[in-house]
Amino acid sequence: MDKELSPFTPDWHKLLDKLEADEQSSNSLSADEQVLLAELRAIRDESADALKTYSSFHTHKKWGELKAHIEITSAVRSKGKLRKLWFSIAAAAVLLIIGISFIYHSDQQRPQNLVNMIRNDIPPGRNTATLTLDNGKKIVLSTANDGKLANEAGIVISKTADGQVVYTVKDDKLAAGTHIHTLSTAVGETYRLRLPDQSEVWLNASSSIRFPASFASAKLREVELTGEAYFEIAKDKTHPFIVKTNLQEVQVLGTHFNINSYADHHTTVTTLLEGSVHVSNHLEQGKIIKPGEQSIVQDGRDIIVEPADIKNVMAWKNGYFRFRNEPIEDVMAKIIRWYDIDVVYAGKVSGEKFNGNISRRKNISEVLNMLSYSNDVKFKVEGRRVTVIQ
């Protein structure tokens, strides 16, 4: 980022420097702190364009108010209290910059007195999933205790304290049989899985992965995916890793990539962050994609390979929504999956495009209030039904 375009005093840079230094030191960040740091980095990287255009916004006034608050509380000296102060600053800065971002992208209109009718708030999704074993037993992970979940045919399945399912092969001979397991998330759920070959999978909401409990007897490491997942595949040149979806097959040796194969999209998008992958479709066409590229597969059509917006693709895994020139229908599609809501539209659908970042940890009222800065939409929330009013 070009720091000359930043509206912030050196305090802003001190804050980021402090968090990034903690991240690299033994004073490591908690999961919540890591998410907040990721948000701050993303916002920092993307704020320059907004600031160029929205120069008339009273940024300096707002920052002055924020700085005054910082000075009042600056007497706090203990380490624990200092950490709280840093994050108070961070939270305020996030709100300020997110506001700038959404205002800027609504054609520089200032927010008016729009009234969102929110009769009840809705909390964000959570870290849980359902694991279905080969014998049909289902384990709801949010209610399962940490530690060993099951011991099946030489394979120990356990849940870690930070909410991850881990497969460990204890007996190669017993584990050589075919035992198929499924990890699935409902709307508003996400989960992380470590496969028996030490590959890791982050599963987004409304998704599932079907996989063998052991790859010990297989020449290929094959899994099946519906929905969306991010993969970090353990390197094994003698056993290629294959991900099958309804429209394509992806073969890799060891790499990082994301696959979005939600059925309502009618396309499968594979985005590569590291290494290389081979994508093939039902027409027996094949394409190799490179880091920073993505393939788009649609039924009956040629495979398209194009540059990818990595930040946009990885936003869900990093804990936030990221909208880039997206119509309200696409914005609400992401919100539906995370908040488990029904959405209806009243009036003509707005043609406005939305841009911005919002944490996925916020209640829905905060997300909708931010979107209503556009002046083109407001919202009514009744139970789990959200009406978009144009």
Entry keywords:
390 residues, globular, single chain, 34% strand, alpha+beta, four-stranded mixed beta sheet, 8 helices, disordered N terminus
Distance linking N and C termini:
36 Å
Q: Supply the number of helical segments.
A: 8
Helix content: 25-40%
Q: Approximately what portion of the residues adopt beta-strand conformation?
A: 25-35%
Rg over CA atoms, rounded to whole Å, is 23 Å
Broad shape: globular
Low-confidence stretches: 1-8, 72-82, 94-112
Q: What would the average pLDDT be, to the nearest integer?
A: 80
Judged by helices, strands and strand pairing, the structural class is alpha+beta
How would a crystallographer describe the biggest sheet? 19 strands, mixed
User: Using DSSP, what is the number of strands?
Assistant: 25
